[in-house]
Amino acid sequence: MSDTAWSLGIRITLSLLRPVRTLRLVAPTYERLRLAQLRRTDPLQWRVEVARAMGIRVGRDCRLFSLNVFSEPYLLELGDNVIVSGNVTFVTHDGGVYLLGIPNVQGHYGRIKIGSNCFIGMGSIFLPNVQLGDNCVVGAGSVVNRSFGDNCVIMGNPAKMVLSFDMYRALRRDSPFTVVSEQYADPKPIPPDVKRELLERQFADVPWPAPHLSQLDGGSRSAP
Known about the structure:
The protein is built from six helices and 14 strands. The protein has a six-stranded mixed β-sheet. It has a four-stranded parallel β-sheet with strand order 1-4-7-10, with helices on one face. Strands 3-6-9-12 form a four-stranded parallel β-sheet, with no helix packed on it. It is an alpha/beta fold and 224 residues long.
C-alpha cells in the first residue's frame, strides 16, 4: 500500500471513529491511529505527545528531534520552548550501585529538569540529578553531570560554562554563518531546494575558518 493510500485510509477511519472515540473499546484504537497519522505528518509534535504519554513533563512549544529516555521518564521535566536535537540521551539512574553489595538496593536515581528557552545540542548526555536553568545552550556531545543556572552556554565532557547566553547571542547575530529569512522565519521550515540556494548564495564569499592559534603554535611539533 502506498503512503498516499495509507494516509487516506487512516483519515477515513479516524473520521468514522471520531464520534465514538471516547468509548472504552474504541479509545485505544482511535489513539493509536491518531498517533500513527501524526508521526507521518508532524514527527516533532508526535514525539511531544509520546513523551507526555510516557510521563515526561513537557512544556509549551517544544521541539523534540530525539526521545532517548530508557527508563523512569517521569523523572524528566522540560520547560517551554525547549529544542532537543538528535541522539540526546537522558539518564535518570546509575546502574553501578548494583555492584556495591548494598543489601536490598533498589537502584540509585535522580531527576533531570531543563528550563525554558533551552537548546540541547546533538549527542548530549544528561546524567541523573541535574538541573539546567532558563536560556541555556548545550553544545553538541556534551556530558552534563552537574547543574547550571540561567543564561549559560555549556559544552564539553564534563560540561563547563564557556560563555554567557547574551554573549552567545551577540556572536551568532553578527556571524556570517547565521542565515536570516523573513519569508521562512523559525519555526517555519525552508523547502530543501530553497534552503540549498539560500546557503550556497550566502556562503559563496565566506572564507573557511583559519586554524586555531594553538595549532599554529605547537600542533605540528613531534612528541618528545
